[in-house]
Amino acid sequence: MQPKHIFKRGWSALVAVAILALSLIQPLTSVQAASPSERAPLAGSADRPSGANAHRMNSAASAPSADVATDWFDLYLQLVQTSPGFSPPVAARAFGYAGVTLYETVVPGFSDYQSLAGQLNGLDRLPRLNSSRSLDWPTAANAALARMARKLFANTSSENLAAIDALEEQWNRALLPTVDAAAHARSLRYGQRMANAIFVWSKTDGGHEGYLRNFPAGYAPPTGAGMWLPTPPKEQPALQPTWGENRPFVLASGDSCPPAPPLAYSEAPGSAFYEEGMEVYTVTQELTAEQEAIARFWSDDPGETVTPPGHSIAIATQVLQQENASLILAAETYAKVGIAVADSFIGCWNAKYEYNLLRPVTYIRKLIDPEWTPLLNTPPFPEYPSGHSVQSAAVAAVLAGLFGEEYAFIDHTHDGRGLPARSFVSFAGFAEEAALSRLYGGIHYRRAIELGMAQGECIGATVNALAFRR
Asked: Which residues touch 429 (CB under 8 Å, ≥6 apart)?
C-alpha cells in the first residue's frame, strides 16, 4: 500500500485521517516527502512497510526501528505549523523538550547509552525504572510523545488533538500484539511518567506557554541611531524580547557562545556599515532564478510552514529514514537536534536584543532607495545575528557528528508546497545555503550571516560535548 504523507493532504483530509486512523493501521509517514518514484527509496517508501506495519514485521530484530519516533515528529511538525503562537523560538523549545522526552524514555533499554540527567541544566531527577520488569520501548516512546504533545500544544485545535489521539491509538494497536499485555501496560505508564517529569522540568525555563506572549505588552525597544524599528508591511512589535533570558538546555546561559559585535553603525557613504547595506540592496536588485529559489525554499514562515527549526527537524527525519535507523539512533538524533535548535534561539535572541540592530529595509529605505522592498517580508525582531544562520550551523554540526561530515542527502521538506527539492553533499552545505538565503531575501546583512554561523557552530559543539554514550 502506498504510504500516506500527512503534509501533502489538505486540511480536510488531515481531519479525516485523525478521525479514521482509530480503525486503520496505515501509518503517518515523513513530512512532505516525495513519492517513491521521485527519489531514491527511503524508509517509509512504498517498497517497504513503514510506521506501525514496519514495527510488526521487524519485531524480531534486535533493535526496534525508528518509525514510531519519525511518525511522532512528523505530527509535531504539523502541530507547530497549525497551532497558534508557535513562532520560531517557541517551536524550537517544543522540539527540544520532545527530543529529550523521547531519549530519556528509551535510554534505559540500551546499555551503550546513558541519561542526560545531571548534564542538562536543571534536569537532576527522572522516574526510575525497575530493571527486573521488562518494557517495550516503542510502546513507551509512543505513550511519552503522545502525552508530551498534549502538554506542549495545550492550545491546539480539536482537529489536532484528534490527530494526536489517532496516532497514539494506531501505534498501540500495532504494538500490542507484539508484546505481553502486562509489559505493554507497564510501558505505557512508564512513558507517561517520563513525559510528566520532563514537562514539569520544562515549566521552570522561562518559556512555558510562550505561545501566549510572543509580543509582550509593555516592552519598549531602545531608541537611537541604528536601533531596530518595526518593519513593513505589518509593523509588528518586537517578538519574544526576553527569550534570550530563558534557561538553555546545555549552554551555561543565553550569552554563552556570543557572536562578535556587529559593525559600528554609520550612515556615511563608503563606511563599512553603509557598504553592507549597499550589498543587500545590490544583490536583491539582481537576483538570479537560483538565488530567488534558495530564498523562498528557506523562508519557512511561521503559520505557513513548519518554521526554521521545524525544517531542521524535517531534515533529521529524512536522514533517519535514509539510514533505516534504529529507535535509539532516532532518539539520540532528535534529542541533539532539538537541543541544538532550542539553545540556538536562546543564544541568538540574547544577542539580538543586546544589539537591537536595525533591519536592512529600514536602513536602505532611509539612505539608499525609499521605494525598495525585499523579496521576503522582514520578521519582527532585531537583525543581528541571523537566526537561520545560528540554528542551521548548530544543526549541521550535530548531524555531522552523528552521520559524518560528507553526508549527501536531498531535502524534500517543501515538496508539498510545490517547491523543488534541493540536493546537498554535506550538512555544512545545507547550513551555508540556509544562512545565505537571508541575504538573497533582503533580511540580513552579511556579517549577521557569517558570525551567526560561527555562533551556531559553537552551540553545536557544546551539544556534541554531551555524553550520550557510556
From this structure: none
Rounded CA gap, 313 and 338, in Å? Answer: 8
Cis peptide before 374 (omega within 30 of 0): no
| CA-to-CA dists, residue 191 to 118, 132, 134, 332, angstroms | 20, 17, 13, 17
Give the three cell numbers for residue 222.
531602545
Quote the CA–CA distance of 304 and 325 in Å, as a whole number: 29
Q: What is the pLDDT of residue 24?
A: 34
Q: In a 3-state reduction of DSSP, which class is residue 363?
A: helix
Per-residue pLDDT, 131: 66
pLDDT per position as a tens digit, 248-276: 999 999 999 999 999 999 999 999 999 99
Contact, 121 vs 346, CB < 8 A?
no
Minimal CA–CA distance to 200: which of 136, 256, 127?
Answer: 127
SS3 410: strand
In this structure, the dihedral spanned by the alpha carbons of residues 336, 338, 343 and 346, taken in order and rounded to 10 degrees, is 180
Residue 255: count of CB within 10 angstroms of its CB: 14
Element (H, E) at 173: helix 158-175
Write the DSSP symbol of residue 265: P
CA separation for the pair 375, 296 (Å, rounded): 9
Q: Is the previous residue joined to 385 through a cis bond, with omega within 30 degrees of 0?
A: yes
Q: How, if at all, do strands 422-424 and 409-411 pair?
A: antiparallel
Structural domains of the chain ordered from first start: 6-202 (1.20.144), 218-464 (1.10.606.20)
CA 91 to chain centroid, in Å, comes to 7
Please say whether the dihedral angle defined by the alpha carbons of residues 36, 404, 313 and 433, taken in this order, is positive or negative: negative
Report the 10 Å Cβ neighbour count for 284. 23
Residue 242: closest CA among 214, 204, 200: 214
Backbone φ and ψ for 469, nearest 5 degrees, come out as: -100, 150
CA pair distance 392, 308, nearest whole angstrom = 8
**Cβ–Cβ under 8 Å, residues 326 and 64:** yes
Grid cell at residue 24? 486503520
- Which grid coordinates are listed for 283? 544583490
Low-confidence ranges of the chain (pLDDT < 70): 1-62, 131-132
- Quick one: 297 exposed, middle or buried, by C-beta within 10 A (0-12, 13-18, 19+)? buried
